[in-house]
Task: inverse folding
């Protein structure tokens, strides 16, 4: 019950704010959504605590029937187990803080912002539906729901062409992933005859040897399904190849970036991997694929992060990179670790984004770091909070990121496989780069000589308490979450904690193996992180000429990084341009001439037929009676002759 | 033998008069042929042993319905020539449809055979030694009470419908208000006056009933065709 | 005798009589009171239907089963909706007379009897009771030429259809030796008995019933009567009798003639295809929205008949689900049509809707919802109606029907969406009057049903499933 309230309170808030926002005014709409969110957060946390600490029993909250067509059944139901409860608690908690923060951040908007709050709450509801889904279709419903809300929020400033373009890009790129996901769901249904998790997981053992024959080659069904689901997750979680929408999505208001593109939505892919862990664990090929993509993303995004100048884009690439870490963990079978990092990351990444928002707010909506600097005395609270976030991100003891990132790298190393090792190497390099770009960001933003014009500098001010307060809460989270949750999530009693909501195959011992690693593996990330910080200090604080010389010396590499490895250009050349050309061809030749010709012809035919039929409708009773009789005679004749 | 002969005679007359109902040029003749058809049908009933139905047919259809038809035909100045306007045009189509239907019904007749258990499934078996009317009465209010009541409701609806569609409450029509009539007393309606001999009655002394409301001019009657012009004018386009 | 089976019908008949008497004796303007009482009577009857127990009664002339209860509830709901629709309209048009609700009650009673008929005689009497009341209702605005013309046409053609039906009944009686459905089914268990005469009889019966659901080629009355009859009567005509007559058709085809599926399947297919095609094509050129709805209902009945043509429980279930959806979206559409008034005068041209999107966004939105639903665009309920008849058709191998159904839906979408286009993109001539509360409430309610059907279709589909199964024994 409490659980259902946690899920539906945001929907209620969204509907109230969205439908009657104009009626009740901005203030009331904000109040309603925030109250609903607080209620949801309380209920969500209570449900979590009840389940984990007070011995509550997992189960399902049935809500009703959705679809019942033949053997295909999809009920509305909320799944109540540790994995879902953890996610619900995290989502409602972070979303509440971001709602509160938004009151301050959106304070200077000229237009009513009830729409914004409605979208935020709608997003939260969809995300909750996603994480509490009891079957794949409901999960897909939430999946598409967050996609829709994300589209609406990225394009919130709809009078800004770049925002609209970014919204469309996000939507389209996500469609590609969703297509694979949908095919994956369909295959699951064909294989298991059900899309309900409990039924799927119960039947895992039976279909292990199912095989698909495609183009003369044999593929194991589990591998195919696993890869398809991961391709879906890649779109949503911005993994290498389908990551291009995430940086552009920063066109949306900053709270949106924090909520959707850092803390919650992009982690849906990781959640999906954990949710489907019983199946994935029997698909080693798919897992290897996940590890390779995850590791590559982690490294690749980190390299780009080092050369970007837009403060939000740096954090966006960092998100991309951290998601790569989570997939590495999932790929080596340590789903618990990936969820652990997901939670800690939610705290510190939301903190970083909201901190960046606070900076942008202070700098009169300036986002370019090259026009910042020298403001740390003016906004000390934000400065301090950004430090906390960066320390957590870089994985410095005792901040949250240290525990989770460390665990991921340990798991990758402990897996002992070649791909695991690849993941570990990528992760180590990325850890160095992460620390480097984090301090590059800190130094460029807050230190050095002011590079903004004096109008802006005069105007720099600390954000209002309504914005700082959520940041403080998140900072506390970023400080203690890792320390507090490590014992629960991946401690010795992890099996009792997860209570089967994340299942490992019998031969998956990666969590046990993590305990028996050489000591240096545990320390390596910290050392690398500190090295990164040191390098950044050297480059941007001590001798700012070094990066300039480096950029000149390795111009090619620098431009490669600055232009994000030319991914957008590559896609433009490979897909967008040919696609447009093909579309133009289809439009002018295929559509305008051939296809339009057919419906136009058919329409003309229909209109002609319509005229003829209507002509029969003379209004004369005799004609009507005759037509009835003729019809009758025709029918009788048909029956007597062709029976 | 006699019965068979009588059946064919009556049946033939029935069919001929039915055809005449449709084809006669004078509507009054049509109605008369209709009456003829009813009589012959009643005779057929009699031959089949259904004397009650035969009498009902005569009383209700001949006695009431057909006579009503006759009244309507004679009182309404229906322009039958105009109604027959489309006759020439539709005749070929009608003939074709009729012919096809006829052939098909012949085919149906060709395949006629009784179901083996038809006799046992027949409705309303007449017990021996009970008259026709008696037998009908026995089942009508017991086994078929539902249908009987439903038929009653159909008639009720027909009555309501007739009233709804035709009854007009005209301002000029005079109603009898029994309450007012009986409430009158001599005191309110009589006044004794003494009139001098040879003086006559003064104009003001003559009492006339005062109209309660000013009279409205009578509604214009459409078409000048006597009763109920407007609602019969449902023109058939 | 188990007379209690008919308690809902008896109650409705008695309340009709009581309301009639009350209306005669109440001095001052009895219509509103009588209408409200009639709505109350309909609701109470629904309660009685819900509380009734299954079984046959009156020597097998009358049967109560999940199928009849399902149909009765739907009919009662449709009648109640139509009655509420008439309140404001009749007052404004000077049609507020107490006979109106009474006739509605008796028509509804006829439909209830039709739903429970398990005998050709009961069938005929129910049908006549229903029809006769509706003939009168169609001509209720007796001072307008169009209304009396509508009543007259419906009556004359209805009489012809009744003749066909009776002829068919007599043929079937002659060939099976019974008029009770159970006995007929027994007699026809061996398809050898499917003689030409019997088949001809079935065709005649189908013709008589197809007239009532206005399926092609017995549809000719529909546009004229829909246009001429007072709008609330049209709303009634478009919903409740269609449900009852379709239910009757289902029961007759499946229960007594179920063994002859092979013989009549093609018949239903032909009628269905013709209805879909004509419904889609003829509506294109219409300018009067009530005529448009007439062709639309012809088309919808064609879609519903697809389910019957399957001859499977799934198909029948599809028809029943379709009817539920159809009733609510049609009632809503008519609420919007009845709300169309300009300076107090009713208007019914499609062009009169121009600019409604700006002048009355609520009404326009409701109308748009109904139009999208009728066009079968998901997630509106109309889509699911079509889905639930197309799927069984595909499963039964009736590809032709499904394909034609989809094609005609596309053509149909054109004229439904044209209404939406007129509302939102055409310049308004002059604003329409604000609709009265009863219509707004009704339109909102039905629009919500139409929009949200997809969330909880379970109970409806479950009930339809149970109802369909009982026909197949």
Result:
């Amino acid at each position: 019950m409490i659980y259902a309230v946690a899920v539906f309170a945001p929907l209620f808030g969204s509907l109230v704010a969205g439908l009657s926002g104009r009626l009740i005014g901005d203030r009331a709409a904000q109040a309603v959504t925030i109250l609903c969110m607080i209620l949801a957060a309380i209920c969500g946390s209570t449900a979590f605590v009840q389940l984990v600490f007070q011995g509550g029993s997992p189960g399902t909250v049935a809500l009703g029937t959705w679809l019942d067509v033949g053997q295909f059944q999809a009920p509305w139901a909320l799944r109540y187990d540790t994995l879902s409860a953890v996610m619900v608690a995290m989502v409602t908690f972070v979303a509440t803080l971001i709602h509160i923060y938004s009151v301050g951040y959106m304070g200077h908007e000229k237009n009513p912002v009830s729409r914004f709050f409605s979208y935020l709450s709608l997003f939260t509801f969809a995300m909750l539906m996603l994480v509490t889904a009891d079957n794949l279709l409901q999960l897909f419903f939430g999946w598409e729901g967050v996609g829709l809300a994300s589209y609406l929020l990225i394009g919130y400033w709809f009078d800004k062409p770049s925002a609209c373009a970014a919204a469309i890009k996000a939507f389209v790129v996500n469609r590609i992933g969703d297509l694979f996901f949908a095919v994956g769901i369909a295959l699951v249904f064909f294989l298991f005859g059900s899309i309900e998790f409990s039924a799927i997981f119960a039947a895992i053992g039976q279909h292990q040897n199912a095989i698909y024959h495609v183009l003369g080659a044999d593929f194991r069904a589990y591998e195919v399904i696993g890869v398809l689901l991961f391709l879906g997750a890649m779109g949503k979680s911005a993994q290498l190849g389908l990551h291009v929408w995430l940086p552009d999505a920063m066109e949306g208001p900053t709270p949106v970036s924090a909520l959707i593109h850092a803390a919650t939505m992009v982690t849906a892919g990781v959640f999906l991997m954990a949710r489907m862990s019983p199946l994935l664990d029997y698909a080693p090929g798919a897992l290897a694929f996940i590890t390779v993509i995850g590791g590559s993303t982690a490294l690749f995004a980190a390299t780009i992060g080092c050369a970007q100048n837009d403060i939000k884009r740096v954090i966006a690439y960092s998100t991309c990179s951290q998601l790569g870490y989570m997939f590495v963990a999932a790929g080596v079978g340590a789903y618990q670790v990936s969820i652990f990092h997901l939670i800690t990351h939610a705290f510190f990444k939301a903190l970083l984004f909201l901190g960046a928002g606070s900076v942008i707010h202070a700098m009169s909506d300036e986002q370019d770091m090259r026009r910042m600097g020298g403001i740390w005395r003016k906004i000390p609270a934000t400065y301090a909070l950004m430090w906390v976030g960066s320390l957590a991100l870089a994985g410095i003891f005792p901040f949250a990121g240290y525990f989770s990132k460390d665990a991921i790298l340990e798991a990758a190393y402990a897996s002992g496989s070649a791909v695991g090792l690849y993941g570990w190497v990528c992760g180590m390099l990325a850890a160095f780069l992460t620390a480097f770009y984090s301090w590059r960001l800190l130094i460029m933003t807050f230190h050095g000589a002011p590079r903004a014009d004096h109008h802006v500098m005069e105007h720099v001010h600390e954000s209002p308490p309504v914005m700082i307060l959520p940041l403080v809460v998140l900072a506390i989270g970023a400080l203690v979450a890792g320390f507090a949750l490590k014992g629960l999530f991946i401690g010795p009693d992890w099996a009792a904690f997860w209570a089967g909501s994340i299942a490992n195959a019998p031969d998956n011992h990666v969590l046990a193996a993590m305990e028996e690693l050489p000591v240096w593996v545990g320390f390596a990330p910290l050392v690398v992180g500190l090295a990164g910080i040191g390098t950044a200090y050297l480059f941007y604080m001590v001798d700012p000429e070094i990066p300039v010389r480096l950029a000149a010396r390795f111009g090619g590499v620098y431009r490669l990084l600055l232009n994000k490895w030319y991914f957008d250009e590559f896609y433009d050349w490979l897909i967008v341009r040919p696609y447009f050309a093909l579309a133009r061809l289809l439009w002018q030749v295929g559509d305008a001439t051939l296809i339009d010709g057919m419906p136009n012809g058919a329409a003309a035919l229909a209109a002609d037929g319509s005229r003829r039929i209507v002509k029969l409708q003379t209004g004369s009773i005799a004609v009507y009676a005759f037509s009835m009789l003729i019809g009758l005679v025709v029918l009788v004749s048909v029956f007597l002759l062709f029976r | 033998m006699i019965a068979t002969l009588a059946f064919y005679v009556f049946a033939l007359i029935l069919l001929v008069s039915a055809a005449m109902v449709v084809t006669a040029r004078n509507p009054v003749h049509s109605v008369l042929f209709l009456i003829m058809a009813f009589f012959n049908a009643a005779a057929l009933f009699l031959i089949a042993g259904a004397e009650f139905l035969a009498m009902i047919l005569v009383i209700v259809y001949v006695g009431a319905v057909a006579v009503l038809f006759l009244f309507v035909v004679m009182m309404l100045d229906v322009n039958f020539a105009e109604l027959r306007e489309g006759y020439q045009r539709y005749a070929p189509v009608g003939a074709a449809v009729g012919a096809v239907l006829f052939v098909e019904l012949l085919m149906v007749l060709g395949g006629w055979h009784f179901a083996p258990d038809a006799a046992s499934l027949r409705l309303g078996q007449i017990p021996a030694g009970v008259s026709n009317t008696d037998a009908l009465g026995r089942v009508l209010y017991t086994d078929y009470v539902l249908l009987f009541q439903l038929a009653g409701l159909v008639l009720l609806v027909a009555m309501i419908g007739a009233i709804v569609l035709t009854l007009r409450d005209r301002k000029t029509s005079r109603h009898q208000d029994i309450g007012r009539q009986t409430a009158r007393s001599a005191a309110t309606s009589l006044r004794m006056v003494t009139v001098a001999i040879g003086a006559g009655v003064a104009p003001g002394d003559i009492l006339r009933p005062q109209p309660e409301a000013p009279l409205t001019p009578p509604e214009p009657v459409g078409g000048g065709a006597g009763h109920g012009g407007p609602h019969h004018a449902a023109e058939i386009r | 005798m188990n007379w209690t089976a008919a308690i809902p019908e008896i109650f409705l008949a008695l309340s009709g009589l009581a309301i009639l008497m009350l209306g005669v004796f109440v001095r001052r303007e009895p219509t509103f009171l009588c209408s409200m009482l009639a709505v109350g009577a309909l609701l109470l009857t629904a309660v009685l239907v819900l509380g009734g127990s299954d079984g046959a009664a009156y020597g097998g002339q009358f049967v109560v089963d999940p199928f009849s209860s399902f149909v009765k509830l739907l009919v009662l709901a449709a009648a109640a909706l139509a009655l509420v629709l008439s309140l404001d309209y009749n007052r404004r048009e000077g049609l507020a007379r107490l006979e109106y609700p009474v006739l509605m009650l008796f028509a509804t009673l006829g439909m209830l009897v039709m739903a429970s008929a398990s005998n050709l005689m009961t069938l005929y009497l129910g049908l006549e009771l229903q029809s006769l009341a509706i003939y009168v209702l169609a001509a209720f605005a007796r001072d307008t030429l169009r209304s009396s013309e509508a009543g007259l046409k419906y009556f004359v053609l209805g009489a012809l259809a009744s003749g066909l039906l009776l002829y068919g009944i007599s043929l079937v009686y002659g060939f099976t030796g019974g008029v009770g459905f159970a006995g007929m089914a027994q007699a026809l268990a061996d398809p050898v008995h499917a003689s030409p005469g019997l088949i001809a009889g079935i065709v005649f019966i189908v013709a008589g019933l197809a007239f009532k659901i206005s399926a092609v080629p017995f549809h000719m009355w529909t546009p004229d009567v829909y246009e001429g009859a007072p709008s609330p009567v049209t709303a009634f005509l478009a919903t409740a009798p269609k449900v009852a007559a379709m239910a009757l058709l289902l029961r007759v085809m499946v229960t007594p003639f179920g063994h002859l599926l092979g013989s009549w399947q093609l018949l239903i297919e032909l009628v269905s295809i013709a209805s879909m095609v004509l419904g889609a094509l003829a509506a294109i050129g219409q300018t009067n929205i009530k005529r448009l709805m007439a062709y639309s209902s012809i088309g919808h009945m064609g879609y519903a008949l697809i389910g019957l043509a399957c001859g499977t429980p799934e198909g029948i279930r599809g028809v029943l689900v379709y009817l539920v959806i159809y009733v609510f979206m049609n009632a809503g559409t008519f609420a919007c049509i009845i709300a169309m008034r300009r300076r107090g005068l009713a208007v019914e041209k499609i062009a009169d809707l121009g600019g409604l999107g700006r002048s009355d966004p609520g009404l326009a939105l409701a109308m748009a919802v109904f139009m999208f639903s009728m066009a079968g665009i998901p997630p509106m309920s109309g889509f699911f109606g079509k889905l639930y008849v197309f799927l069984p058709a595909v499963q039964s191998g009736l590809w032709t029907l499904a394909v034609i159904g989809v094609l005609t839906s596309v053509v149909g979408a054109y004229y439904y969406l044209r209404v939406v286009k007129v509302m939102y993109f055409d310049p308004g001539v002059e604003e329409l009057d604000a609709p009265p509360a009863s219509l707004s409430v009704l339109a909102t309610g039905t629009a919500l049903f139409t929009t949200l059907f997809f969330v909880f279709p379970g109970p409806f589909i479950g009930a339809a499933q149970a109802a369909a199964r009982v026909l197949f024994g």
In short: Residues 263-473 of chain C form one domain. The longest strand of chain C covers residues 55-57. Chain C touches chain B through 46 residues (CB under 8 Å). Chain C has a mean pLDDT of 91.
